[in-house]
Amino acid sequence: MDTFLLGDIEIAVTRKEVKNVHLVVHPPEGRVTLVAPMRSRLDVLRAYAITRLGWIRKQQAGLRAQAREMPRRNITRESHTLWGRRYLLDVQYVDAKPEVRLDHKRITLRVRPGADEVKRAEMMHAWHKAQLHAVLPDMIKTWEPRLGVKVHGYYLQRMKTRWGSCNHARGHIRLNTELVKKPRHLLEYVVVHEMAHLIAPTHDERFIALLDDHFPRWREARAELNSLPLSA
Fold it and tell me: What separation in angstroms does the CA of 204 have from each of 23, 86, 91, 112, 158?
């Protein structure tokens, strides 16, 4: 993979068996990639990117202006989001096994007396991962026959610059744990997006056609996801 700079903007170049150049500004932080035909010269691609510099900066500015969530301290009466819905957090210090509970209006975090901010954050992150693990296997199984692919493994982690990623060679997908805060249909969009990369590794014509065929409202889902607050 090659890279080049346009001022302070780094653009990563991947050459594939495609007919046209595809320039993408990726949420949430504005990473820029360019997919190009195999024989494309780097100086030609750089010249093309220069003609699109105004568009790139506009896309990045829109992402930077997007609302950011305030850092969470995981304290009582703090607002937390799960699947697109707001809940108040109730922190209880009890001499019992730590746990997180959810009801119709609040999330209750039970921790041992003296649990600090780091421990409370670890508990909440583990709970977020458990919420994702509860829905992802069935979601993946639903889409495997539709797309004609097999996901050999999925992984959850915090990501700074991506909602998901795909290891095409291994058949693995990786998802940002922040997705637990978004409506479930947006999680499904990211899952389908990454599963489609098992067929088409880059954002080329084949990839776009797959999404158009199997998830026709993907553009609306992408726009909605990109309009929601990002993690602090």
Answer: 10, 37, 47, 51, 27
Burial class (CB in 10 A: 0-12, 13-18, 19+), 90: middle
Tokens of 118: 């780091």
| Whole-Å CA distances, 115 to 92, 127, 188, 226 | 10, 16, 35, 35
Report the sign of the C-alpha dihedral through residues 59, 224, 122, 109, in that order: positive
The pLDDT > 90 percentage for the chain reads 76
Strands laid side by side in the 153-157 sheet:
153-157, 172-176, 164-167
Q: Are strands 22-26 and 31-37 parallel, antiparallel or unpaired?
A: antiparallel
Q: 2, 24 in Cβ contact below 8 A?
A: no
What's the confidence (pLDDT) of residue 210? 96
CA atoms within 13 A on the CB side of 190: 28
Q: Which residue has the tokens 């093309």?
A: 48
Cα–Cα distance, 174 to 225 (Å, whole number):
17
Full-model pTM = 0.76
CA 221 to chain centre: 12
DSSP bridge partners of 118: none
Burial class (CB in 10 A: 0-12, 13-18, 19+), 147: middle
| Closest CA relative to residue 228, chosen from 83, 25, 71 | 83
Torsion over CA of 186, 188, 189 and 192, rounded to 10 degrees?
170
